[in-house]
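User: Can you help me understand a structure? I only have the sequence.
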Amino acid sequence: MAELIEDLPTRTFEPGAVTFREGDESQNEAYLVHEGTVEARRRVDGEERVVNTLVKGDLLGEVALFRDAPHSVTAIAVEQVTLLVIPAQRLESMVRAN
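Assistant: Let's start by predicting it. Here is the structure, written out as tokens:
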């Protein structure tokens, strides 16, 4: 797996920063949590609720990418977070290879 991700670009977010919002387009990329913790939140009955907590090694944003639909959650950095940016074609290749 290391060789599949070694040259991917990264993005860093400070605590409280929004990676993407529910309803945003996927930008043809998904993210792998490299460092830190991210909360996935969704609006339910007008209230934002945590539906998942993602840590190192977890994939983020892939649902919107595979469904070619807007993001179904808002992703917020709990602490400083570094994400590996995985373009759609690269993710597809990684899934096929593994």
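Now, to help you interpret it: Strands lie at 10-13, 18-20, 29-35, 38-44, 47-54, 59-60, 74-77, 81-87. Residues 36 and 81 are 4 Å apart (CA to CA). Let me know which part you'd like to focus on.
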